[in-house]
From TrEMBL:
Stored CDD domains: PAP2_like_2
UniProt entry keywords in alphabetical sequence: Hydrolase, Membrane, Transmembrane, Transmembrane helix
InterPro entries cross-referenced by the UniProt entry: PAP2/HPO (IPR000326), PAP2/HPO_sf (IPR036938)
Keyword Hydrolase applies: yes
Membrane-traversing stretches: 12-31, 51-79, 86-106, 126-149, 161-181, 187-207
PANTHER family: AT30094P, SPHINGOSINE-1-PHOSPHATE PHOSPHOHYDROLASE
Keyword Transferase: no
Domain Phosphatidic acid phosphatase type 2/haloperoxidase: 85-204
GO molecular function term, any single one: undecaprenyl-diphosphatase activity
Protein name: Undecaprenyl-diphosphatase
Top-rank taxon, per record: Bacteria
Organism: Salinicoccus halitifaciens
EC number per UniProt: 3.6.1.27
């Protein structure tokens, strides 16, 4: 696995990227980049591929993420992997709170119609802002956690590589889908990925200090 030195480096780089994107976005220096990339993605993506990828956006919805997180948490508790269960709670719940606070702080409007926060059919009268993408953050955090489990506990090296690549592709497709359905700007996605990486490794470091990993 990655040493603490490289983890800290990844965390600082990710946080730096997030700060730069945030600053440039607030100063409206990324408008041209957003528009050109959105136009390019729309132009180069065939209609049937766009529909297929757009359908994947549901995998990053709050309902799906909550259900999957609950199932994984129960499985970890059943197998007495309490260190992973604790980390999953920190990653998921902390990530949701962090995303909500960032959205409220920056209050960036979406490229399409503004929506409100919804969960399992219940609607909160709180605007669902665009920056950073909640779908992307939830997906990146949960998939990163699954990648960690795969790298540490999957069978052989080939299996680890296959699972990691599949999960990374799924992460990428969900992120792109948010642009194709006109719900987020590309900078919303980049900001979400960078802050998610920072938060994931921060949670990993805290968890390993509180509860050393059981091999």
């Amino acid at each position: 696995m990655i040493s603490n030195r490289y983890r800290n480096g990844i965390m600082m780089i990710s946080l730096g990227i997030f700060i730069v994107i945030t600053f440039l976005s607030l100063q409206h220096h990324m408008v041209t980049f957003d528009r050109r990339l959105m136009h390019w993605l729309t132009e180069v993506t065939p209609g049937y591929v766009s529909q297929l990828v757009s359908a994947l956006t549901i995998l990053g919805s709050g309902e799906v993420i909550v259900i999957l997180t609950f199932i994984i948490f129960l499985a970890l508790m059943l197998y007495k992997r309490f260190e992973y269960a604790l980390m999953l709670l920190m990653v998921s719940i902390g990530g949701i709170v962090l995303n909500f606070l960032l959205k409220i702080l920056f209050q960036r409007e979406r490229p399409g119609d503004m929506t409100v926060i919804e969960m399992f059919g219940f609607s909160l009268e709180v605007a669902s802002y665009s920056f950073p993408s909640g779908h992307t953050m939830r997906s990146v955090l949960l998939i990163s956690f699954l990648i960690l489990l795969s790298l540490r506990h999957a069978g052989g090296k080939v299996m680890k590589v296959v699972l990691t690549l599949m999960l990374l592709c799924l992460m990428l497709l969900i992120a792109i889908s948010r642009i194709l359905v006109d719900m987020h700007f590309p900078t919303d996605i980049l900001a979400a990925v960078s802050i998610s990486v920072f938060w994931f490794f921060a949670c990993l470091g805290v968890t390993e200090r509180l509860m050393p990993q059981k091999r």
